[in-house]
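tokens incoming
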């Protein structure tokens, strides 16, 4: 039963004070380095200082412990974790749709959309769909995507080269490392991840 409690505690966090059932522990003492002590003696030292004996590395034999204020340590760890999560950016995959015979005006609109998405740190999935007999000239679609890749080459990399997928050609663009993102809503989140989000405008 004792071992089961110990395992459950390890899953939730470090063992503290009398949860540490090893007969001896390695204590990290400021200015003195590491000392091996009886666990009872280490507990007594922690109690004298009004602090806690906290296991920081249970994989060692004996385990490595520190005498610290566990409540304060736990609070600081949670605060640090929240700060890291807040600064992480969720990468969305935005989709823009094009046609092989797209006009100059429409092309410029789609290009501006791609640039806007990229400057927010998102990836851009470019889908160029063929209709009817247009599929017999895939090179026209390839030229459109090659032009787009070239037009945004100063800020974006082609992460997935243009390739046929059924009746469409797909290409994925991503912001180049070192290019600054434009601040805006959604650039920070509580957790990191990747989400597909399509712009349904044709």
């Amino acid at each position: 039963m004792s071992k089961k409690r110990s395992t459950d505690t390890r899953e939730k966090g470090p063992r503290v004070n009398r949860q540490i059932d090893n007969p001896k522990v390695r204590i990290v003492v400021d200015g003195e380095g590491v000392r091996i002590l009886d666990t009872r003696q280490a507990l007594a030292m922690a109690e004298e200082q009004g602090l806690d004996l906290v296991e920081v590395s249970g994989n060692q034999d004996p385990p490595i412990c520190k005498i610290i204020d566990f409540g304060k340590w736990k609070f600081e760890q949670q605060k640090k974790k929240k700060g890291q999560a807040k600064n992480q950016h969720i990468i969305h995959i935005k989709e823009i749709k094009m046609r092989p015979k797209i006009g100059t005006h429409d092309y410029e609109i789609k290009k501006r959309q791609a640039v806007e998405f990229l400057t927010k740190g998102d990836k851009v999935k470019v889908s160029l769909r063929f209709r009817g007999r247009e599929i017999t000239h895939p090179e026209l679609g390839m030229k459109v995507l090659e032009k787009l890749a070239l037009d945004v080459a100063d800020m974006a990399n082609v992460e997935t080269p243009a390739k046929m997928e059924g009746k469409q050609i797909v290409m994925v663009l991503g912001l180049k490392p070192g290019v600054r993102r434009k601040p805006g809503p959604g650039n920070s989140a509580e957790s990191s991840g990747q989400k597909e989000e399509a712009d349904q405008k044709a």
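note: The first strand starts at residue 24 and ends at 29.
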